Amino acid sequence: MKKVLALVMVLAMVLSMASFAAAEEGNAPYSGDVKIWVAEATVEFTQKMVEEFKALYPEYAGANYIVQPVGEGDAANNVIVDVEGAADIFGFAQDQLARLVAADALMDVNPDLVEEVKAANDPGSVAAVTLGDTMYAYPMTSDNGYFLYYDKSVVSDPSTLEGILADCEKAGKNLYFEINSGWYQTAFFFGAGCTLTYDTDDAGNLVGINCDYASENGLKALKAMIETAKSPAFANGSSVSAATNIGAIVDGTWDASSAKEAFGDNYAATKLPTVAGFQLGGFGGFKMMGVKPQDDEAKMVLCDLLAYFLTSEEVQIARYDAVKWGPSNLNAQKDEAVQADEALSALASQLAFAVPQGQYPNEYWSLATGLGDDVLADKLDDADDATLMATLQTFQDTAASYVK
Description:
Blueprint: H1 2-14, H2 17-24, E1 33-38, H3 43-56, E2 64-69, H4 72-81, E3 89-93, H5 97-102, H6 114-120, H7 123-128, E4 130-131, E5 134-135, E6 138-145, E7 147-151, H8 161-171, E8 174-176, H9 186-191, E9 196-200, E10 206-211, H10 216-230, E11 234-235, E12 246-251, H11 256-263, E13 267-270, E14 274-275, E15 278-279, E16 283-291, H12 297-310, H13 313-323, H14 330-333, H15 336-339, H16 342-351, E17 355-356, H17 362-376, H18 385-400
Parallel strand pairs: 1-2, 1-3, 8-11, 8-12, 16-17
Antiparallel strand pairs: 3-16, 4-5, 6-16, 7-12, 7-13, 9-10, 14-15
Helix pairs in contact: 10-18
């Protein structure tokens, strides 16, 4: 943990020098409760890291650290409902950032650390913790996104979707791709060069939309979806455990063990292929660690220091070793064990073509499902360009209507 010690010492110099000066004058560092919410799978690991933190910073060893199992999917909702009673430090997913900011549930990252955090972590994770011009949390992982798992004995060249489908057809196998999901569907549209994002103000409210699906690029994406779904090898889905006769699947790191079991010695993973001449893109997802606003300045310094520590390079590597969460830290991504992880390596390659998932209204997901369902039902198979463009215009106008 020598690198962690160095990082913590650097942080000590920039974090609230007034508080440290006050401590030296006789005011003891904070020694009350510090509540931390993390995913259940990382509770034991986090407890161990807290002990490392206490050893590195003995002046904070007197605080009472309470680590509780509240996952990233639930933390934001729980914090927003009761900010005062919520954890002081908590992990959450990037699509919850705007809601937390709107609820005044996040403290800004120390301005003196912003450039350091930007330089240390990959650009996607940095964008995911930033709203407007303000950084509100510390990047923790870059491991939520999708890529291609495939059977090497079936797929001879995974570089094009057309080639993968041809190989699967020849072998009597299926390629799974969940095109009626608003998450996976963006692989086609974003890859073709389209945009669909919502603007938020500093309070986290939706104030605008950037969408150009009704365009030549959108037409290219929709046509590629339609042609993909026409293949007899195509199957709509994204779960290895629910797949049958599988030759390839667009899925995520959470299904790595299932994919290895399904493909055995022929297991392989790589970035998404091209289709119709363009690289498939899509959403990228990230986990981060935030600190809620603190009235007690000494506690604020401690919480910020601990959140920084728990997302540092060495702790990210240790977290990967413990629970296989993929690091956002650029140096941690170069770790030998991380590099040897086929699924994470494939995701890292794909994230270069991905857009961090921001805040989307609930209605968007239903809208995207409807478009995908029409493709799956062959409703657009014989449509001319004018009809397809009208379909995309309706989609775009409807998506825009969600901004009040």
